[in-house]
Structures are given as C-alpha cells and as structure tokens.
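step=predict obj=Discoidin domain-containing receptor tyrosine kinase B isoform X4 n=491
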Amino acid sequence: MKHLSSSEAIIINIIMFSRQCLSNTTRFIPTFAASRPPIHTLRWRWELSLWAMVITSGCLMLNAPTTTAFDIVTCNVPLGMESLVITDAQITASSAHDMGFVGPQHARLKNDNNGGAWCPKHMVSNALKEYLQVDLLQTHVITAIRTQGRFGKGQGQEYTEAYVLEYWRPGFDKWQRWKNIQGKEILPGNINTYSEVENALQPIIFASKIRIYPYGQYDRTVCLRIEIVGCPWDEGIVSYSIPKGVQRGMELDLSDKTYDGNEQGDRYVDGLGQLVDGQKGKDNFRTDIHGFGKGYEWIGWRNDTPGLLGNPVEIVFEFDTVRNFSAIVLHTNNMFTKDVQVFVHAKVFFSIGGRYFSGEPVQFSYMPDTIMDHARDVTIKLHHRVGKYLKINLFFAVKWIMLSEISFISVPALGNFTDEQDQRRNSASQAQDTRDDIRSNEFQRNKNKPIGAGGSAGGLGEGLASAAGDSGGNSKYKNGPQYRLFLRRLM
Ligand SMILES: [Ca+2]
Ligand SMILES: [Ca+2]
C-alpha cells in the first residue's frame, strides 16, 4: 500500500474530523490524535493551522443553533399579560368605559390597578361589537386563554360570562373567527369577579394578534382581565398548501380539519392546520384518541382521486424569511394491511420567490416496509439548501398516503443584506435568458439523476429561475433583503 504523504494524511484526518464533527462534536478529538502523523516541518504546521481554521469554522456553522421541531407539550407559557412582558401599547380595545380607570391596559390577569380590569363603554350582547385586542408582535401558537372579572379591590361586580375569539397573522386579509372541532365559537367565561377560568384551545391558534369579544345572550355590563398562554412560533411557517384530504368509507374523515386558509379548486391555500399543530396520529389511523372522530389526526390522500391520478401529493410551504434547511420530518402512517404505506419516493424543491421551483430537487426513496405497521417519522436530509418556499412531492407506494405532522429543522439564512439594485437588475435580465433552458432541461436531468443523489448541485439553476420569476412581475419579494442577498450569491 502506498505510503501517505503528510498532506494526504491531513486531508484524511480532516475528512474523519469533519464526519465526526457532523455526528458528534464530543468524540472527534481522540480519533484525530490517534492517527496524527508526526509534525516535522513548518509547512506542515502552516497547513495544519489553515485546515484547523477551515474545520473550526465549518464546525461552528454546523453547530449553530437549529430550530427544534414544534412541541405542543411545552407550548404552555403565559405570554405576558400578568407579568407586563406584553406592554400597555400592545393592548387596545374597541372602547373603554373610562380610558384611564378601566382602559385596555388594565385587562391583565391577577393585576388590580385603578379600576382593576378593562370595561367596554357599552353593554355587550350577542352582536359582538366590543373587543379587547392584544398584539403579540410576531406569530405565536396560542394554546389556552385565561380570564377573570373585575375584582376592583372588592368593589367590582362585572365579569364576562362567555366570549368569542378572533385572530390575525401576517398573510391574512381579514380576521378569522376561532371555532372548536364541533364548530362551536362561544367559550365559557367567568362566574364571579375573582376566579380564574382557563379554556384550552382545540384547535390551537397561530396568530400575531388576538381579539376577545365578550358575549352575552342578553345585554350585559362586562369587564375582563386575561392571560394568553402559548409559545412563539419558531418554525417560521407562514402557510402551507395541500390537496384536500378525502373521506375513507362512511366514518373516516381524513381532511385537514383545522385548516384556516382558503379553498382553491381541489386545494387548500394560505392557511395552517393539522400538518403543523404538533399532534400526531396513532399507528392505527382508525383510533379515536380525543373523541374528535376516527382518523381525526390524520390527513389522507388516495391515488385515484381526480387530480391525484398518476400524480404525487404536492405540498407547498411558505416561510417568513429565506431559511437554511437541514431536514424535513414527515410523520407517516404505514398500516400496509389497509392499503396505507409511506410514500415510495419524495422530491423536495426550493424557491426564493415562490413562483419557480425549477432547480434540481432533493430526491429521496423509501424502501416499502410490509413487516412493521407502526406510524413513523420519515426524515429527509435537505443538505442546507436555501429557500423561502419549499415544495414537496410525495409519490404513492400503494393506494393511500397518510400524514399527521410535518416539521423542519432549519434556521433563518444569514447574510450580508446590502442594497444592490444594479446587481439585481443585471441578474434578473441574465436569468430571463437562461430560464427557458433550465426549465426545458429539468425533466431530462431528473431522469438521469440517480435516486437519492439530490443535493445542492441545482442551487444556481434554481436561483436563476427564481430570479427570472420575480422579474416577471412578482414585485412582492423583489425588494426584500433576502432577495438581494440571494442575487449577491449568484454574482
Ligand atoms: Ca398534526
Ligand atoms: Ca384530519
């Protein structure tokens, strides 16, 4: 066997070092030391320190904090009405009986200053005209609401017997009324001026602003103190779009029951729902865990429904900013005896502008498992691909695909956000020239590509095509810092 030169030995060590760095940062040092060749020249030392710098920076990048998947169990933190983390300026209302004495800034749970609560100017009824509004400044998951009446140091008499919730988040063109799984909108409130009542929300709410409308069957004077319980929505998902799930037999509704966007043909668009609510289905999709109906947690698609005939299930995610993706995790049913299996193949496409996903997709294949029928998390590594939009194509192995949750391991893509109008213009016109080539070659390239060999090779083509898409009139993303960063990377 050929004797290794010192440079070759270093490179081998670096490869080993990097691999270990990827898998476990605490184990790599002994391995490196054990196979280290003797250091005997200055040049060797110089090379070593240079490579060490490269590896260290690589390790730092790899070990940068990544977003962990959303966990519904830990999403139960008071968001700051009681603690004053939510400022007075974030709390507004339709009116107040007396702005200073019982204004919206006094609607804080367990606080009793001035009048001791928020009281609207008018009596409330079932007309829902008076509301308290809290601006959380960024999208949060809201899992519960706590309310109290006006104790007013023992002088208060008013409380809110029932209420209705509305919410808003970026991307909505109107406020959305919350309703529970049974379609009921009215939540029970208080029965006296001091006891605290909590309503856990099912479904949970993704919102940056929330309104509470005191409700009364008859005209009634009310006051209110509240706390909002939940957590920040760190996954950065603005919305996803999916084909509508279908009915299976008479009793199994495999739709996205909590989706809060719009219908567009045979798809749901611009909303969030069960795919990202942190709740997973059981192995047997017929299990009724919470009494919401059999199969409730699952969303299912059948390969012979119109629109899916011969096509994959296509899911598109929009994120709040350009992100760097490590992986996507799909919780999938595999009850093969009932014609449900993990998708046999997946393609993941990326886009900056959201109109063109023309780059080389990350490809993934799944060996059919007809031995174990448990539901499972299937992880697809995304090799630090970058995008603001991500499109997933899932190909049927058998008649049914069922998913109950999708999560991402990603971080916002960081970069040098400078204003580069001229570069943007040049890149866009260059992209226009190359777009047609890229698109016409896509099928051929995908066809020739070995399965599982997806990666970052298609990044440039994808980027050019996306830039071209934006130059075609979608000005929404044209002037954003991410767009400029992205074009800068193309240069
Ligand atoms: Ca779910
Ligand atoms: Ca469902």
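step=describe
The CA atoms of residues 34 and 255 lie 56 Å apart.
step=end
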